[in-house]
Specification:
Elements: E1 5-13, E2 17-25, E3 29-35, H1 40-43, E4 70-73, E5 80-83, E6 86-88, H2 110-114, E7 126-127, E8 130-131, E9 135-137, H3 143-151, E10 153-155, E11 158-159, H4 166-175, E12 191-192, E13 209-213, E14 219-224, E15 234-235, E16 238-239, E17 244-247, H5 262-265, H6 281-286, E18 287-288, H7 300-306, E19 313-316, H8 337-349, H9 351-354, E20 370-376, E21 395-396, E22 399-400, E23 422-425, E24 433-435, E25 451-452, H10 453-464, H11 478-481, H12 513-517, H13 519-522
Length: 537
């Protein structure tokens, strides 16, 4: 059993002095599973009351901050009123809520929903007497997610770092920014605001310009979507020395974040090859696509775990039909997404027996251990009642944040977004742990219980001894600026303790791993598809 640790003691003032004693395990592997378009109130809103009381707490377990509804403006009535959440199937098919930063055709999106912190602009499509954006997924559709949360860890206050849809969100989860901060450009306070083109995006696309926002939050035409900067695992010198793999259903879509980074796409920190297909060594060595022609090779993450070939850091991007995206028509019930995630977790937990005692990624019988972060890339337009920890607005001339807000001038115009779910799985995560638990006092948005995508990156850096993404003076990346990154405290470390070590708890899934491994082979008319199905929002 592995007991490598880092011991820290932090004293932090929050009206009183609070001491946090850390006794952290070292993980040999970290898996980042990225699902699609859900808020906590939407995905985990099927609490005990099942929507019987409007606008009150409805947690599925003690300490969880979930509310059943809130205030909003119903279109055409012009009066702010309380709106109660309703139950919908996960893939209702009748609504894919607006989740742009500012949707150009309607003016809806994040800015409208946030409404200067009032959180009351979510009722953008009022149909059949209902605001379906105010809904929760019926529990029978997502039971594996509830089982993961109660068997391991759930975050009350994980916020997406960006205020927009999937393209910038996935950039933040791989590189810690969606701004072209180094080394060839200086506009590090401008962020990609919206999705790039579909299906061709990233460096392989030379003509499309993704919309950007400036420090004031004003959206403009911006710049091309291939931009030079570092990532969690690469910098201008090349690889950072830790093995990694990025599993994605297809190359060149808005969720394949490395496709927009020349260092990975072309193996050089230059835009000289923009418009050409990705071909660099980092790309060919680390981007993993499904083999649709071979049975049992349609889910490479499961294949690598079974073959004892798991890398140190893995990103796992789903196919559209098991991504949790709302736009599917609910012809498959229960939906595939929760089983997809549950099977990856089960593959790790059961790796010792499944590999005939060749590898043990859970760590019960070896020195190999794994932490799994399951996160959703954006809120998808669904209602959530918790305001972001801060929304920074500055000036464009000169480009800067308000004095005293952030000394390094990072985040203006596009930080922070709404809550997204985060599940944390490891042998050192206490069953039923709730980060920011608030049994009697919600929200409990205090350090160290407020997280964002940079928290995952910073935890990974600490675990593997990686240098921060940005080592210059501007600190223009989310790993340095995560809300819970106050050195020497390690972000997300409240989820882990050596004293919580326990055996694996298997997750029951309606669809077995073999279903996903053979899906493309068994359905030859279906091609692997990015998890938004070509939708521009």
């Amino acid at each position: 059993m592995k007991f490598a640790t880092s011991s820290l003691l932090l004293v932090f003032a929050l009206g009183a002095t609070i001491a946090y004693a850390q006794n952290l395990p070292h993980f040999d592997h970290i898996i980042i599973i990225v699902q699609e378009n859900r808020s906590p109130d939407n995905l985990f809103g099927a609490g005990p009351m099942h929507g019987s009381t409007c606008g009150v707490g409805d947690p599925f377990e003690p300490g969880v901050d979930i509310d059943n509804g809130g205030y909003g403006y119903i279109n055409g009535q012009g009066q702010r009123q309380e709106i109660c959440n309703i139950s919908l199937p996960m893939n209702d098919g009748t609504l894919d809520p607006w989740h742009c930063y500012i949707c150009q055709t309607t003016g809806y999106g994040w800015v409208h929903q946030y409404d200067s912190g009032n959180m009351d602009g979510f009722c953008e499509i009022y149909t059949s007497g209902q605001c379906k954006e105010y809904s929760f997924v019926q529990k029978s559709d997502v039971q594996p997610y509830f089982d993961i949360a109660t068997a391991y860890g759930f975050a009350n206050y994980m916020f997406q770092t960006s205020e927009g849809p999937s393209f910038p969100a996935h950039q933040f989860l791989f590189t810690g920014t969606s701004a072209p901060v180094a080394p060839l450009q200086t506009n590090y306070l401008d962020f990609v605001a919206e999705n790039a083109s579909f299906p061709s995006s990233g460096c392989g696309q030379s003509t499309y310009e993704a919309p950007w926002v400036d420090p004031t939050g004003t959206e403009g035409p911006g710049s091309v979507e291939c931009y030079t900067h570092d990532s969690l695992v690469t910098n201008s010198a090349g690889e950072k020395g830790v093995s990694w793999r990025y599993y994605t259903p297809t190359a060149g879509v808005i969720w394949t974040a490395p496709a927009a980074i020349p260092e990975v796409c072309y193996g050089q920190n230059s835009l000289s090859q923009q418009g050409e297909p990705c071909s660099g060594t980092e790309w060919t060595s680390h981007i993993s696509l499904p083999n649709v022609a071979v049975s049992n090779f349609g889910a490479p993450i499961l294949t690598d775990i079974a073959n004892c070939n798991l890398q140190k850091i893995s990103w796992v991007i789903p196919d559209e039909i098991w991504s949790d995206h709302a736009s599917l028509d609910n012809t498959q019930s229960p939906p595939y997404g929760p089983s997809w995630v549950g099977n990856i977790i089960n593959a790790i937990g059961n790796s010792w027996s499944n590999s005939n005692h060749t590898c043990d990624y859970w760590g019960n019988n070896s020195n190999d251990t794994t932490a799994i972060f399951v996160v959703w890339d954006d809120w998808g337009g669904w209602f959530d009642h918790v305001t972001p920890p801060a929304v920074y607005r500055g000036t464009d001339n000169p480009p800067t944040c308000p004095n005293g807000v952030q000394e390094n001038n990072w985040g203006c115009g596009y930080v922070y977004g709404f809550r997204v779910p985060l599940l944390v799985v490891s042998e050192y995560t206490k069953a039923g742990y709730v980060s920011g638990s608030c049994v009697t006092n919600c929200p409990q948005k205090v350090f160290p219980y407020v997280h964002d995508f940079g928290s995952i990156l910073a935890f990974t850096e600490n675990n593997f001894g990686l240098s921060p993404i940005d080592q210059s003076t501007d600190n223009g990346y989310a790993d340095r600026n995560a809300p819970d990154n106050v050195p020497p405290y390690v972000p997300l470390s409240d989820f882990f303790s050596l004293s919580n070590q326990h055996n694996f708890t298997s997750i029951s899934t309606p669809y077995p791993a073999s279903f996903f491994e053979s899906y493309y082979h068994n359905n030859p008319s279906y091609s692997p598809t990015g998890p938004d199905g070509g939708d521009s929002d």
